[in-house]
Design a protein that fits this description.
alpha+beta; about 25% helix; 26 strands
Length: about 575
């Protein structure tokens, strides 16, 4: 067998799986399956099919997901650095697909780092609606923010907060909430053998305490009629069916929405709760059978690692057609502080587990009856500013990262006399042709476009209040790398295209200065070649350069550069 499993784990799985156990164990002799997901914020599926650099095979439960052949390293291609795809384990793509995000939704990814599911949600929103993505660990939000920026997300807010504090700021605000819960990580044993070592130090009991608090808080974050998707990468029934049954028992305004048994998805196993936790089963008997409508993804039944997914639907006072156990029948419903984390390295595709992120959550208020506070869309639109500029500054001359404002610190420029919004607006007018939505906000010298009103974020630890546009330095606006990543060539007044085939793109991604003839600079009408240029790889934005007299000065950030041979 390829992976040496803990004896206690193997014995428990043998007891639960019975005749299926031998087949389950054989899956550990197989190599884990690698996958990538096309980022449709930057490229359509048809376009990607034309330029795909690898032989890819579709993942049946994700229309933008593909299996990557063994030995292929998609992270070592310019398209990865241009944000055209995200490297993601195939089973991990299922929860967001089941969340059924639509453009215009307000969505919360509550336990989000490193950001794979966040970028998947963003692609489904297509820039419409609001995405709030959060992780309680400050160090992990660095990767989260970088992925949001690399993949060209314009409508996201990145937080570093406890679920409880987010619920206080966003009561019953979100249409969809994703909980990729911290868990014991048993489903990742084949993919990452370090998870086997970590498993022995992180008890299921500890995970259950955190999951319970997160689920209870999520109910306070959800708008009436909204959807919660809860997922883990573990097999333990305590963290899966038992957790969902406990939540349903306390929150009778929620029901399980049935997940079809297709593409290798297996049903939930409520009988395992009765078998291993008879007291818990007795306590939740009235709702326990609903958990059969949840899904288990098994490594011996599909090409992916072990996962569990539950779709929880809020009734919102309406009667839903259910079966005898209360499962919603298929077809019954249609499916602050601002911290600079620019220069960091992202570890690819770390799955969410307690071994990867040990989280200490504050306990949620466990009132069985809640007063639903419904905040109108009109109120949100007023806060968002409808595309207007607020020029909002951090308090007491500091930005939201606690740093002193750089006003008055520029060389030869009276920074106090500078109107940052005017400088920013002039740059956008002269350099880009992009429609800005939301509110323009300034924290210190940094400029953002935010779809969430600044007042709502007050007091929260905010990593990114919105799309990071750039900084004001010495009276000038300096565009950010995240601004470039989210653009397309048609939105820039100057652009230059580098080929992925001849090494020129890799040289740019490594930070080298390039010789570019003026004829290669694509210009809009009445535009000179000199100045900021949007640098594209095979037509897709990768970063900035400055062109002058045949030389393209490289503006690719040092912390993002290609470091592979």
């Amino acid at each position: 067998m390829g992976v040496k499993l803990p004896l206690i784990f193997a014995e428990r799985m043998k007891s639960l799986l019975g005749d299926e156990f031998e087949q389950f164990m054989k899956s550990y002799d197989q190599s884990p399956h690698a996958g990538l997901r096309v980022n449709t914020l930057k490229i359509s599926m048809e376009q990607f099919d034309e330029i795909a650099p690898f032989d890819l095979r579709p993942i049946p439960w994700c229309e933008t997901g593909f299996y990557v052949p063994h030995g292929v390293k998609p992270g070592l291609h310019p398209y990865y650095h241009a944000g055209l795809y995200y490297i993601q384990e195939p089973s991990a793509m299922a929860p967001v697909e089941l969340l059924q995000v639509e453009p215009g939704d307000r969505v919360l990814d509550l336990c989000a780092a490193p950001g794979g599911k966040t970028t998947q949600i963003a692609a489904k929103l297509q820039g419409k609606g609001v995405l709030v993505t959060n992780d309680i660990h400050a160090e992990r939000t660095k990767a989260l923010a970088k992925n949001v920026e690399l993949y060209g997300v314009r409508n996201a807010v990145v937080l570093n907060e406890s679920p409880e504090r987010i619920a206080n700021a966003f009561p019953h605000y979100f249409d969809k909430v994703l909980i990729d819960a911290p868990c014991s990580g048993e489903g990742m044993f084949r993919k990452d053998e370090d998870m086997v070592k970590s498993w022995e130090h992180h008890s299921v009991e500890k995970c259950v305490l955190m999951q319970r608090d997160i689920l209870e808080t999520a109910a306070r974050l959800l708008a009436p009629g909204g959807t919660i998707v809860y997922s883990t990468c573990t097999f333990a029934p305590e963290e899966n069916e038992a957790m969902i049954a406990e939540f349903l028992n306390v929150n009778r305004d929620f029901v399980v929405r049935d997940i079809p048994e297709e593409n290798g998805f297996a049903p939930g196993r409520p009988e395992w709760v009765r078998q291993t936790m008879p007291e818990k089963a007795e306590e939740t008997e009235a709702v326990l059978d609903q958990t059969r409508g949840t899904a288990r993804l098994w490594p011996h039944l599909l090409e992916g690692e072990g996962h569990y997914v539950a779709v929880l639907q809020h009734r919102a006072g309406q009667e839903l057609e259910t079966d005898q156990s209360g499962v919603v029948k298929e077809g019954a419903m249609e499916y602050g502080q601002v911290v600079d984390v620019s220069n960091i390295e992202v570890e690819e595709n770390k799955d969410h587990s307690i071994a990867a992120s040990s989280i200490a959550m504050t306990k949620a208020d466990r009132k069985k009856e809640r007063l639903l506070r419904i905040e109108s869309r009109e109120s949100h639109d007023r806060q968002a500013g409808g595309g207007k500029s607020s020029g909002r500054q951090g308090k007491k001359g500091k930005d939201h990262g606690g740093r002193k404002s750089e006003r008055g610190q520029g060389r030869g420029v009276d920074q106090a006399s500078i109107d940052p919004i005017a400088v920013y607006t002039q740059f956008m007018k002269e350099q880009l042709e992009v429609e800005l939505v939301g509110e323009t906000v300034c924290y210190g010298d940094r400029v953002y476009q935010s779809l969430v009103g600044a007042a709502r974020l007050e007091g929260l630890k905010v990593i990114r209040p919105g799309w990071f546009m750039g900084t004001i330095k010495n009276g000038r606006f300096v565009p950010s790398h995240p601004l470039a990543c989210a653009l397309n060539a048609s939105e820039a007044r100057r652009s230059v295209n580098l080929s992925s085939a001849d090494g020129e793109a890799v040289r740019y991604l490594k930070g080298e200065t390039l010789n570019i003839e003026e004829e290669r600079v694509v210009l809009k009408a009445d535009t000179f070649a000199k100045g900021y240029v949007l640098v594209c790889v095979d037509g897709y934005a990768a970063g900035w350069g400055k062109w002058l007299d045949g030389v393209l000065k490289n503006e690719y950030p040092a912390g993002w550069r290609w470091t592979s041979v």
